[in-house]
Amino acid sequence: MKETITNGTMNGNGIHEVTNNLKNNSSNRECIPKSWGTKEFWGCGSEYDPDWVLTGQQKTLRDKLIELCRTTIRPRAVECDTDYKYPRESLDSLASLGLLGLIIPKELGGMGENHVCCAMVIETIARYGCPSTAMVYTMHLVGCSMLLLGCHQRPHVQQLLRRINKDKLIGTSVHSDPATGGHNWFPLSSKCALVDERTVKLLKFGAWATSAGYADWYGVQIVSPKFDGDFTNLSCFVVYRDDVRASSDDWSALGMHGNMSGPIIIEGKVSTDQMLGNFGDGQRIGEEAAGPFFYLCSSACWNGISMASMDLARKHTTRRAHADVGMRVCDYPIVQDYFGGCLSSTNSCRGMLLLLCQGLDQATDNCNWNRYADPKWNPRENFKVWLWQSKLETSENVIKVTQTMLKACGGTGYKSDLGVERLMRDGFAGCVMSASSELLRGNLGKSMLLGIESLDCWQMHCNERVLHNELNKMDLHAKKALMAKLQKEVKIEEIKESLNHPYQDTDFENPFNTMPPHYVDKTIITSDGIRHEPGLHPNKWTTLELVSRTEVSDKMALFVFGLPSESDHTGLLPGQYLAVQATIAGKKHLRYFSPISKPNDFGQIELALRFETHGIISQFFQNLKVGSEMEFMGPCGGFEYESNTLDELTLIASGGGITPGLQVIRCIMSDKKDNTEVNLIYYSDNYQDILYREELDEFAAVDGRLTVVHTLGDAPPHWTGPEGFIDADIIGRFVTKPNGRKHKIVLCGGPTMVLSCLYAFKALHFESEQIFTYGQFGTEQIRKVYGRNVKLSGHRCDNTL
């Protein structure tokens, strides 16, 4: 029998009960003193809480939650802040009230509550408990909303929903992208391909995920298979902790220290059972579930922080007296003015949010998820601009209120003991959290003046007014240059047949490849007469033993593995990468590495690894001891360098992206017959983070074939080199302009660096077919900058197809 998913809350109609409460209480509302344990609450009284919007059941839940905050969540708030501790114990405690399943229907093991109740619960946790816990819980509810909209005819997802509160499974969502930031979550750095009817291969880079590596499950938005550049063609999946890689230990911020937010990578094969809805439903899930619940719940969080700061300030100002004048701080008119203004603005925000929640409850049949089985039923889309306004006003208000309350408390407020400064730091997250206040104001103003369709979030339409205005600024020479450029692009787009090899973009890992990776399967005979066989194979695993380990820092180490024979070469070309596999808890886990040792460093392979806080393979390497064994296979892809096939090679790298370039440089420097000129531009965050600096600089000092340019994000006083990210200025100064020579450009770094460099190369008239990018997103990054139908680089030096 098909299961029906209903809201199942408050006798079937919480809205009617709220209306009755309002009628019954409007003429005579009693102000019941608010308790804090066995004593009276020291903050703002209940007369300033809009209780009339809550049902009796919701009020009871709120009172129980306040007590849970007092006894369990609030005592841990300072520790979460000072120690950057993830609030797992506080989150687990919410399950005792059923709150991990707050919006999950009763038929699936949840409470079946509505939007009003969501706002109340989030505000209560932020106000009486811990803002970090409230924000982590916000993202948990966002993830739950994604599962609920996509669970119809998905037994795997429904089973997960049943377990969430019972097994205390914390979730979150992954929508961000490192290449687009908070401007708009445009999934440029994502990829999806069908392996077979039951299996999908996913790769998603997220710039920013709350609970990164700590959550038990993740609702992930990603491009659909064969999306062909249409970023409205999105899909969503649920993945689990073992499928993610994250370095949350790097999380350092002004506030919200317990969130453990940070970059995240989802990589691997998952069952199609884990898909939310169907292919292409990702946009709907984002606009009808994830987006509305994020704006709603985060607004409630900022309201809770505003109220919490007034609670603490009231406690201080009513108890603190000035002996010289015999007045309490609260007796000063200016302080009373502070409180009056903050209370009024905050309750305006609370009132707006609750009015919005009531509207959402009415429009969605009291949060009835069963209705979403109809793909045409999208009631929340009509509330988009109201959700934006709520997030904008609450996130701006919390900054004003917390700052004002800090001033009201004077020097005591400035110190950490009172807690107002912590709330102020936490509250600042709201205005920069996507969508930022500036973006929301711009969107609201533009939509009001020009219509909601003018926003064009997915960049599908041209703004001809702006275009014509910009064209009018150009002189005749500039117009001719633009016309020539456009004519060239039009010719490319008009070509019916692709300029590229049919094999390109068929290999998930190697989109530039025009054929499978080249394997050096020949026997190499050196001058001493020794025969050197390939130690690895591209189609089968070879077990290798760890022979040495060198710690570079507390977060990085070098690992040297012995090949089967001391005389073996790897079988790889310079620039190619390999796969490493480990069996952990009965499951095989794979990761790709670019060796830093030369292919003809006979008998060994050297890998450099920066450890991640969360990642199965990374943790395995952290515990790896000399004598341990792992499985290797290769070559698996990458740029294939061969000596004297190029006049010039430009390598652009950032951070750990130096590894393939380092291997190529080592190979060229060791081959005096190779006449290739090499130019390395290498970005590091600071001087101490420059990997292999001494070796690279020594190569450049003694060998005229190599030029090394370091650029730093945070340069020391003595630094004379370039500063900042690799941009058009640095590329224009240090990269040879197109001059007819055989010149290949190889990029290896994060999506932000790659796209920034690609825009610079295009502006400087470098051809797309000159540029090879490491990583699975490379061809899409090229197309994003140069156009959908441009000619791509191959994976070889000579660009032979």
TrEMBL record:
Keywords: FAD, Flavoprotein, Oxidoreductase
GO molecular function terms noted in the UniProt entry: flavin adenine dinucleotide binding; oxidoreductase activity, acting on the CH-CH group of donors
Coiled-coil portions: none
GO CC terms, sorted: endoplasmic reticulum
Binding site for FAD: R591, I617, S618, T659
Recorded superkingdom: Eukaryota
Cofactor: FAD
Any Pfam family: FAD_binding_6
Lipid metabolism in keyword set: no
Family: Belongs to the flavoprotein pyridine nucleotide cytochrome reductase family.
Name the record gives this protein: Acyl-CoA dehydrogenase fadE25
Organism of origin: Hirondellea gigas
